[in-house]
Amino acid sequence: MTSTDKVMDLEVSVIAADKNEYVKIGCHEVDERIGEIVRFVKLRQGNIEGIREGEKYSVPIRDIYYIESVDDKTFLYMKGGVYESGRRLYDLEEVMEPYHFVRISKSIIVNLMKVVSIKPALNGRFVCKLRNGEEVIISRKYVPDVKKKLKGESV
Amino acid sequence: MKEHLKECLRNFFIIVTCINVAMFVLGSILAPDQRFGYEAFVYPIFYAALASIPTFFVSAKRVLSVKQLLFREVLGMIIVMALLFVVMFGGRPITHEIIIIAVSVAVSVVVIFAAVNAITWILDSKTAQDMTADLKALQENAGVEE
Q1: A&B contacts, CB < 8 Å
Q2: Which chain B residues are closer than 8 Å to A126 by Cβ?
Q3: How far apart are CA B1 and CA B56, in angstroms?
Q4: Residue A100, domain CATH
Q5: Does residue A155 fall inside a structural domain?
Q6: Mean pLDDT in each 10-residue stretch from start to end of chain A (155 residues)?
Q7: Distance between B51 CA and the closest CA of chain A, angstroms
Q8: Are B18 and B10 in contact (CB under 8 A)?
Q9: Mutating which of A61, A63, A116, A122 best tests the B interface, going by the most B Cβ atoms within 10 A?
Q10: Is residue A35 situated within a structural domain?
Q11: Sign of CA dihedral A77, A82, A83, A88
Q12: What does the alpha-carbon distance between residue B1 and residue A129 come to, in Å, rounded to a whole number?
């Protein structure tokens, strides 16, 4: 029996209102299965795992400016620097949807809360100016989806 | 693909209009007494279709920066100019009159290129303004401070 086949006991207990809520995992080893649960819990709290210089950090989603996929690697662009994510862009697109993130091109998902203004570029494309001064391009193909998202509709 | 097609069609009709204006201006200057048959109505459509070929078939796999796109547009314009010269003057001897017409056509292509981009820029500016207004409303609703 491999570790992924093992069934975990699940215990949920109600604690006093004055105590901090917590999630505690008892496991034989911290494997991919445990990592997945940890990532899910962090995500529910508005955090995502980011890697920088080999160290893992818990990155607040609302602080991410945009996420870019470059050569099969995914990067999270923050005010304080760039973190790598082990997750694929399409996966993050789905996960980040409730946090006002939207896909603007094949390789970029932007946080709409970090956009200052939108200006035209050439050929029906648009440029998003971000709060950190960077600019990212909305591809023509993704303009209708961005418009929907800006109106508060689901994409 | 649908968006690309819409964009090509929009550009096509803007080019048709610009070519009509260019034919009127150039014709009035270079050959004011020239008379045409009904086939003259087809020329703007034909030349606009010719000018739309590079835009229709060229689609970048990655997102180009504004400078890269501008470079591609200028390159497309030069190809269109070359295509027009081949169609209009191909096989004919180069005379003084042909050089004058060719220069006029080249200037017209540049003016039309600038006009098409200016018109689409104006249309896109309105869209961008609407999008920015929606963005501000969304950010306000989400409680994001400026």
Answers
A1: 73
A2: 124, 127-128, 131
A3: 10
A4: 2.40.50.1020
A5: no
A6: 67 88 89 83 80 90 93 91 91 86 94 95 88 92 92 80
A7: 15
A8: no
A9: A122
A10: yes
A11: positive
A12: 26
Q: Are strands A64-70 and A55-60 parallel, antiparallel or unpaired?
A: unpaired
Q: Which chain A residues in 101-140 lie under 8 Å from chain B, judged by CB atoms?
A: 105-108, 112-113, 115, 117-127, 137, 139-140
* pLDDT at residue number A1: 47
Residue B54, pLDDT above cutoff 80 = no
Distance from the A42 Cα atom to the nearest Cα atom in chain B, whole angstroms: 21
Domain of residue B124 covers: 2-141
Whether residue A97 lies inside any domain: the answer is: yes
- Number of structural domains chain B divides into: 1
Average pLDDT, chain B: 83
pLDDT at B146 over 70: no
Q: Give the closest of B3, B66, B135 to A115, CB-based.
A: B135
pTM above 0.80, yes or no: no
Q: How many domains does chain A have?
A: 1
**What is the distance in angstroms between the CA of the first residue and the CA of the last residue of chain B?**
36
- Which residue from B65, B128, B144 is facing A120, i.e. has the nearest CB? B128
